[in-house]
Amino acid sequence: MSIIDPRTGNPLTAEPANTDNAEAAAERPSVTPEEVIIELNAANIQQVLEASMQVPVLLGAYSPTDNTCSTLLAVLDKLAVEYAGAFLLAKLDIAANPEIGGQLGVRSVPDVKLVSQGGLVDGFQGALPEKEVREWLNRYFPAPGDAPPSPEDQAEEALNAGDAAAAREIYQSLVSQYPEHYAYQIGLARALVAEKRGDDARSVLDNLPPEERDAAPARGVRASIAFSEQALSSEEVAALDGRHDSEAQYQRALRQVADGQYDAGLEALLALMKQDRAYNDDAARKTLLQVFDALGADHPLTVTYRRKLFALLY
Which of 180, 198, 230 corresponds to the end of one domain? Predict the structure, then answer.
């Protein structure tokens, strides 16, 4: 079912490369919360459903005593204003209006449903993080042209810029809001490693559920902790200047990996394998595999150097 923008007559289902959608997003006027957010109840539900014939309505069912609902509502309030009238946000207190909740098929909260032209289009349950809510909305509405970066993106930008403390603070906030969204705990551990707080990072990982603790993302962070603990200090590596034996090459590569210089470190480890495969019980190959774990299977460097490693071995 297509969602039609009553102002333009164009479908609102968003396509990333759709120029018209981008222009529509850029032209949206600013709005106040009162213009796009309403509290749904028995007195106005019929009016809201009728309004969905003209503009899509996002129905958010919640319980006022549920913290996860409060977290999601704060995100929805923010996005309703940011999307500037592309949809109306109608919030339903399920405790005060159980009959309406039953009519709408709400089984648990938070529950979000997208209604257009009087019919259900899509929905989701649970307190999704802001980034995932945006991705869901962008299936149907052009993203605002001036949308701010998500907290996750801000954390990654901080890490890439070397500001591990800022990344840690963002991830700590996300973990407190979404304690069962384990990717944020992995992100927090990564930030702690960057702050050279390996024990704290290990503690975060140890508290994950077994299936998360043993999965590739957590293994990758553990590998990063190991690199930091095994590598010589920068001063000690500098003292190896002029040495080209296998031990010196390995220590320089390990320091590069620990410092996040993965491309240079992987190249050095591969070169050491070619030169001295037997060094320290095949340490270069084993470390390459650890780096692949740390980066993740889909990382471009993992793909490139796994191919090079395969060519060298076979």
Answer: 230
